[in-house]
Write a structure and sequence with these properties.
Blueprint (H helix, E strand, L loop, with lengths): L7 H14 L5 E7 L5 E13 L2 E11 L1 H23 L3 E6 L4 E4 L3 H5 L3 H4 L3 H7 L2 H17 L2 E9 L5 E12 L5 E10 L1 H23 L3 E6 L4 E4 L1 H7 L3 H4 L14 H15 L1 E9 L5 E13 L2 E10 L1 H56 L6 H32 L5 E4 H15 L6 E3 L5 E4 L1 H18 L7 E9 L2 E8 L31 H11 L4 E6 L3 E6 L8
Parallel strand pairs: 15-17
Antiparallel strand pairs: 1-2, 2-3, 4-5, 4-8, 6-7, 7-8, 9-10, 9-13, 11-12, 12-13, 14-16, 17-18, 18-20, 19-20
Helix pairs in contact: 11-12, 12-15, 13-14, 14-15
Length: 568
Amino acid sequence: LIVPKNRYPYVWEAFEKLRLRGDLPESMENPIVTKSGEERLISWRNSTIIEKGGFAGILAFGMDVTERKKMEESLQSWMRRYELIVAASGQVAYEYTLSAGRIIWGSSIANVLGYDMEEIGGNFEQWESLLHPDDRDATIQSLEAAEKACGFWESQYRMKHKKGHYVWIRDRGFFVPDAEGKAYYQLGMMEDITSLKQAEEELKRTLLMNKAILESVPGILYLYNDTGHLVHWNRQFEVLTGYSGDELQGKYVMDWFGGLEPDTSNIKKGISDVMTKGYSSAEARMITKNGDHLFMFFTGVKLTVSGQDYLLGIGLDISERKKAEMEIVRLKESLEEKVQERTRELEAFSYSVSHDLRAPLRTIEGFSLALVEDYSDKLDNQAKDYISRIRRATEIMSELIDDMLKLSRITRTEIDKADINLSNIALTVVDELRKAHPDRPVKVTIPDSLTDYADSRLIKIVLENLLGNAWKFTGKKTDAEIEFGSTQQNGKKVYFVRDNGAGFDMEYVDKIFAPFQRLHNIEEFPGTGIGLATVRRIISRHGGTVWAESVPHQGATFYFTLGYPPPA
């Protein structure tokens, strides 16, 4: 009477098996119909009664599980919908029945671990075996603790992929209690966070590297907010200033300079430029904790983070450089004083040469001339030759004194640079040479409009010496040729004077620009040996260089540059 009609065949079949074979399941579920006609689901626990060796009856205990069954069916329906939602988000839903040790995985498990539903199975032991050995104990312990508390569980661990590598998992779930409040069921979802973990590791490496870079900066690093207070710095900042980290936090930027001028004004202007232009630099004296004043070079750039303006920069201790600069200034002043002293001495020497040395020369010249004029009839030819040599020696000595004075004046004179035409100057010098030696047929080549920026008076002396030497050393050539021109070497304009005269041995090239150095006999090619020394002095004062190339008996070429370009 209490069994629903549609269940009659199953019930009679079960009793027939029991009567014939004593075959009775220990538990089973069957619906019954109550007096009111409502159908309820009963869970039975059965045992067989045996008397005199045969079947005597059944002892059964039934529990109404209708409501629980409805809840389970509702939960399973919700789980199916939940799995679809979770799978769409790239995660894996699962159900874990504790009493059976069985896990039902969502189909998206294949996307995470590479296993399909048949391969992954569903027992707890398999899940445990896939855990990374280093994560297994901690993960199981945290799961057991959550189970005991019958609450929420979250953990991160590594699981072995089908291909053999490990993936990082974030596992979140909650335990469902039974009627006694004990956990009997768990619902959860798993998420592959391998990419996130890799990004975290890369971020850690980057932060570590950035910190190492900041700490290795050869100076102090600082970050001030828009109110001028220090918010970040490196270790070197503490070492240099002597302040601890707690003392530096929030320190106002202008406190470092104690009102010193022009330091304070330099820093204020630098900060203003950073905030308006984006970048600036300044030099100032920074006061340390123990009162030392350090010369610093500061840089700053504007940095905007989340709408907040900051000043980021580096400061370098330039105290040693400043000391060196001050020492250079002191040495320069001392050197200038010594130069002035040497100049006064040189001027005194020049005066002595000009007056004191010329006086005995004039005496020798005068008396030798008197001997020739007044006693010519009493002197034999040898005596006259001796007097002629004396007079020639005094002329050479006079010329040497003149050249020494010229060289001295060139050293002391101020340079007055302007745009000049070297071609015109060279033509003037050659014209003077032709007038002095009208009988010499020398071919001279000078291009038009060789212009530069130099002192025209001193450049004329250079060309007088170089063209004059070329004229002199081609004196024995019937087809004498001289050329003045310019060329380019290493991107610089180089002037040259070339001849086809006597030339010289390059072994002695370093001697020819020294004062009083001669490579030829004075009777063959007269001169004092001061001319090329004068050329080098003038070219050097123009910031240029001079050099020569030659082959004996094939001529020589003298090159020079004028150094500094004209002002813009």
